[in-house]
Amino acid sequence: MRSSCEVGAFQQAGLGYEDAGPAVAECIRLAGVDLRDWMRPGETVLLKPNWVKAEHPRHADGWRTVMTGTAVVEAMARLAWGAMEGRGRIVVADAPQTDSSFAAIDACLGLRAMEARLRASGIDASVVDLRQEEWVQRDGVISERRKLAGDPAGYVAFDLAERSEFADHAGAGRYYGADYDAGEVNRHHTGGRHEYLLARTAVEADCVVSIPKLKTHKKTGITAGLKNLVGVNGDKNWLPHHTEFGWQAVGDERPAGDWKMRVERAAARGLRRLNRAVPGLGPLVHGRAHTLGGKIFGETEQVVRSGNWHGNDTCWRMCLDLNKLVLYGRPDGSLGAHRRRYLVLGDGLVAGEGAGPMNPDPVAAGLLLFGTDAASVDAAAATLMGFDAERIPLVREAFRTRGYAVSVGGDWCEVRLRSNRPAWDGRALPDVEETFHFEPHFGWRGILERERPEVAA
After folding, report:
1. Going by DSSP bridges, is the β-strand pair 207-211/43-49 parallel, antiparallel, or unpaired?
2. How many CA atoms lie within 13 A of 139 on its CB side?
3. Could you tell me which of 132, 136, 153, 156 has the C-alpha nearest to residue 145?
4. Are 173 and 186 in contact (CB under 8 A)?
5. What residues contact residue 97 under an 8 Å CB cut-off, 6+ apart?
6. CA 362 vs CA 287, 300, 379: distances in Å
7. How far apart are CA 219 and CA 241, in angstroms?
8. CA triple 386-57-366, angle to 5 deg
């Protein structure tokens, strides 16, 4: 078996999802991984794709750059079932963004049709929406909340306490989560507590395979294996996404806190309270104010706010905490010393650049990545996208986490590729001219890009 720092990288120009099955198998072979060492007969394997949202704000088929391709997931399911010798259970599950329609996601990806094909082949497979709630948005604000069945297995609460990446972080009391009630996220991250709610399906699985869409991300620089585990949580408002400015304390929601930002944030807080306190009228007023605010303070796709930039020192900590819980979490809410088996298969057949994760432009990269160490796969992804992994805290810090090790490798610069491309094969860091050159999110522009050599005139 090869080192955990070695990552399989299969790339073929023009490779489409119709050829995903053989390509996935070849990528795993390049990584030197025998799935029978990771998945055993009678076990439960969780496949965790990225189903964040079906709608793309600019392109009718833009979802292809946002969500993991079904063909990649199905190929992984069939290979896993073979490794399990036809005995066990495969769960394909995610917690999409709360304001996403699972019906719309299914309409794009054909999830129920995939489930039916797998079952028709004798594979015990199920597709699960792990969320407890789905929101409807109008005019950019939450107007309706619908309760969902959630994870059939239930949920497990954890407290990482001093083993959290937030231990000693100065943002306590000023975190903002995913909902309008900022008090909730701060109740779970104060007084030495750092609590998370995870889907029990992830905690009880014998092996977890993260299958992200490879793309840029406004808060963490990139989305790959590490960021993808946000989708195993049971309540996104337990997750700190950024740290707000206080009257005298510095936050990371944007580069600087001037009077205009304070006015905008004070107004936003009042409108959020109104939204929740006065059903019907509150969302209506909030929505109209949100539209007007975009004209006064700038649209989010043009102005840095809400931690959507390279100075976000919050979101990467939350992502690494979730990775610790998937690796070491137990169904009784404790953490053990034994690591859960955890693999990453990155879908970059059609990747995303620019305003990711929700509004990216397509990159027909024809790329798949596979590895046994999520941090190493993410380092490989960042490098091949043309980015400097050292400048991405989520990747850099994954190799030196507090309390529980996320990576079993040494450092990101020790990662080596095993590839069908000779220019990449065996290389710890491919030359920048041999990689793709993704456009980063505008809040990371000028920070992420690796320097390209000067071309002689």
Report:
1. parallel
2. 15
3. 136
4. yes
5. 52, 53, 358
6. 30, 20, 21
7. 8
8. 35
In sequence order, which residues have a C-beta less than 8 Å from that of residue 447 and are 6 or more positions away?
310, 391, 440
Going by the DSSP 8-state scheme, the letter that residue 335 receives in this structure is B
Beta bridge partners of 128: 93
Tokens of 98: 């709360």
Residue whose token pair is 């088929």: 61
Question: CA torsion 445→451→455→457, rounded to 10°?
Answer: 60
Residue 71 in tokens: 């063909």
Cβ-contact 238, 197 below 8 angstroms: yes
The phi, psi pair for 238, rounded to 5°, reads: -95, 0
Q: Quick one: how far is CA 87 from the chain centroid?
A: 30
Beta bridge partners of 369: 9, 346
Q: What angle do CA 105, 109, 110 make, to 5 degrees?
A: 105
Per-residue pLDDT of the chain (457 residues; tens, 9 = 90+): 456 789 999 999 999 999 999 999 999 999 999 999 999 999 999 999 999 999 999 999 999 999 999 999 999 999 999 999 999 999 999 999 999 999 999 999 999 999 999 999 999 999 999 999 998 878 777 788 899 999 999 999 999 999 999 999 999 999 999 887 889 999 999 999 999 999 999 999 999 999 999 999 999 999 999 999 999 999 999 999 999 987 667 899 988 766 666 677 777 777 777 787 777 777 777 777 677 766 667 777 778 889 999 999 999 999 999 999 999 999 999 999 999 999 999 999 999 999 999 999 999 999 999 999 999 999 999 999 999 999 999 999 999 999 999 999 788 989 999 999 999 999 777 888 899 999 999 999 999 999 765 543 3
Name the token pair of 245: 């400015």
* Assigned token pair, 87: 């005995």
Query: Who's near 455: CB < 8 A, 6+ residues apart?
Result: none
**Helices (H), ranges, 31-93:** 70-83
CB within 8 Å of 420: residues ≥ 6 apart:
9, 10, 11, 12, 26, 30
Residue in this structure with the two tokens 């071309």, named with its chain if needed: 455
What secondary structure does DSSP assign to 211-256, as a single string?
EPEEEEETTTEEESHHHHGGGGBS-GGGS--EE---SSS--SSSS-
Question: Going by C-beta distance under 8 Å and a sequence separation of 6 or more, which residues neighbour residue 181?
Answer: 237, 272, 276
Phi, psi at residue 4, to the nearest 5°? Answer: -65, -15
For residue 13, the SS3 value is: coil
